[in-house]
């Protein structure tokens, strides 16, 4: 009985030692599990925080994207309006340019015809001037001849007058 008692006592001690060992292991595992739970809790909080920040960033990005799209659309509309205005102004200026080109062509034609007319008039006047100059020279020559003849005649008449005067004096 003592042997059995001693044997059972050893078994109980061994079981208690084993139980103690398992309790220590359980406590160590419990402490590790506590650490793991705390770490998991921190990770979940961090994940929730990251999700919140991601959601906020995503919303901010969507707002930014919407604003950028609106700004782009507005800029595009402004550009189209400016393009339309410039296009109509270009058409007006092109039409004006065509009109000015046409006027220039008309004025060049008119200038050429006036130049030709001026040349003809100048030639006509030059011819008339030359003819009048010739007529004048001819008339001057005739008048000089007439003056010369009249002087000669005047000399002859004076001579004759003097002869008549001399004859009268002689006759008296």
Major sheet summary line: none
Strand portion, in percent?
A: under 5%
Computed over alpha carbons, the radius of gyration is 70 Å
Number of helices: 1
Compute the separation of the termini in Å. 236 Å
Overall shape: it is: rod-shaped
Average pLDDT rating: 96
Helix content class: over 70%
* Unreliable parts: none
How many domains make up the 3D coordinates? 1
Task: Name the structural class.
Answer: mainly alpha
What is the number of E strands?
0
Order of helices and strands: H
Keywords: Coiled coil
Coiled coil: 5-60, 90-142
GO cellular component, one term: Golgi membrane
Protein name: GOLI4 protein
Keywords, separated by commas or semicolons:
single chain, 172 residues, mainly alpha
List the helices and strands and how they pair.
Layout: H1 2-171
Overview of the structural elements:
The chain has one helix at 2-171. It has one domain. The protein is rod-shaped, with a radius of gyration of 70 Å. The mean pLDDT is 96. Helix content is 99%, strand content 0%. By secondary structure, the chain is an all-alpha fold. The protein contains 1 helix and no strands. The longest helix has 170 residues, at 2-171. This is GOLI4 protein. InterPro entries: GOLIM4. It comes from Scopus umbretta.
